[in-house]
Amino acid sequence: MAVGAELVSYGRELQAAGAAQTGSSFTGVSGADELLATSPEAFLLGVLFTQGIPAERAWAAPWLLLQRLGHLDLERLASESDAVAKAVQQPPMLHRFKNTMPRWVASAARRLLDDYEGDARRVWPDGAHVLEVTERLSAFDGIGRKKAVMAVEILTRHFGVPLKGRECGQVAFDVQVRRVFLRSGLVAHDDRAEIEAAAARICPEAPGTLDLAAWLIGRETCRPRSPLCERCRLGVVCPRRIDLDAAGVGVRRR
Ligand code: SF4
Fewer CB atoms near the end CB (10 Å): N or C, the chain? Predict the structure, then answer.
């Protein structure tokens, strides 16, 4: 219970601060952060990139794509596949999915044009339900449930989008989140349903509040090897089951 309470407390602090995905900012680059704040389409592209590369790099990708292409025009992103691929693949590459990512970008642009009148804000209109927005985001190529859940939390926490149904939000089944839930004893198994149930039990009014808190702890102190328990936000209350880790990363797996 103490672990859950401390995680909720941290999550609420981050919520009150309107924290971005990596804490105080997305990228540490003002131009890139500004683009995410002012262009819903750029934010959506950023969500596509948040996979398999450091978060700061992923969120900076729409800004770098804009610089390389000279535009983020949806019609052109959807139709000029060679140019998009070249921009993504130009050294330093914007993403290691050098062929998949350009396809996802083009597909997202096409979906925005066809289904949302070219306005990504229509994917998450004010008053929409968390589950509805999660479902819409998940329908984009390259955005599965994990990214969609994370994006919904950023939209509400950082951008203040008034979505209904925060009690239906969730933590992303992300490797950092999973490690923290396991090691802190919030769950016994590296299992999505178990982690989501734990989050809903700990913070029933808005389980997603725990998402960034757990993710930041996982990244900053609860590292796969040599966790920094003495510096950890959960250090005093955590049982420190450091022999455990998320499957596929593990120090030792269940
Ligand atoms: S770093 Fe240590 S104290 Fe913090 S969550 Fe991980 S195991 Fe627990």
Answer: N
Query: Rg of the chain over CA atoms, in angstroms?
Result: 18
- How many angstroms does the Cα of residue 153 sit away from the middle of ligand 1? 23
Nearest to 26 by CA among 10, 15, 37, 16: 37
102 and 178 co-located in one domain: no
Q: What is the tens place of the pLDDT at every residue in 120-167? A: 999 999 999 999 999 999 999 999 999 999 999 999 999 999 999 999
Ligand 1 pocket test, candidate residues 182, 240, 244, 245, most atoms within 8 A of CB? 240
Return left, alpha or beta for 169; rule: phi > 0 is left, psi -120 to 50 is alpha, else beta.
beta
Instruction: Supply the CATH number for residue 180's domain.
Output: 1.10.1670
pTM equals 0.91
Residue 160 within a domain = no
Q: Is the CB of 183 under 6 A from ligand 1?
A: yes
138, part of any domain:
no
